């Protein structure tokens, strides 16, 4: 069914040995399968291994002890015949297993990226195999543990294999986890609860605004390279400042067009303030805030903020606007998240989005970006 459906668009390795995964350019317009081997293959393979192990044990006993009887009694001859019959029956079972296994092997051959729960501990799971490309799935807790104790192994694994991170099962309210832990270690697939709106989802949307919003972002070279002394990128390391971003927030406008007059406050115009900051490696993470402009639908701040960046390639500029509320929690008034690597210097009218990440019709911030 797979070969008939996908035809020539299906990509799969010509042999079991698969030294290097093709680039996205080479795989353009192709379909690849990433999954576990068929259940029937695993069951048959397991049965085959048990049978082989049993035979190996029998053979090894004979090798070790080296006992060969010089003569046989009548009873022993009968027993020998029974063993022969049993052997023929086992051959019949083996033939049936091979018939079942054959289509499974054909399907297994079409799997480009093999998945499955590895045996052994975390160190073993992150082992890079020379002639095989694998997909490993880790929960957010397992990733945190791996990043803490085996950070370099995680990075090396992702240079050749696919790492998928998924939310822990207790997130029954569809909340999301911190995605940067995965991204900083090269994880290609960071799974999100798309109905869990909030900071983590905004970061994901910001990350994938890169490259025209096509859904693919090229990894920075330092996540793919190994140094002369076998060292790799460490997001927790103290690094020098590579680039400094200056952000000036001039003013905001458009709320009076997209919201009712009583949306933020029943009796007076809103009191807006803007939060501006960086998401990225730990040393670059920061959040700053403008003064609150009271009773104004078109607030003018004119404030500038400076952000020294050690790893600008992974940095996202976070922008949020809130309406100050004296008695309750401050009201949300818009947000956006932008990849620092794609910011153009100069003055920009930056569109803001709602909690889901959809752009408002009219709300904009007038801002200036500058690199020094």
Automatic annotation (TrEMBL):
Its EC number is 3.1.4.11. One of its GO terms (cellular component) is plasma membrane. Residues 83-99 have a biased composition (Basic and acidic residues). It comes from the Eukaryota. Its cofactor is Ca(2+). Keywords: Cell membrane, Hydrolase, Lipid degradation, Lipid metabolism, Membrane, Transducer. The keyword Manganese does not apply. Residues 137-223 form the PI-PLC Y-box domain. One of its GO terms (molecular function) is phosphatidylinositol-4,5-bisphosphate phospholipase C activity. Signal peptide: none annotated. This is Phosphoinositide phospholipase C. It comes from Ilex paraguariensis.
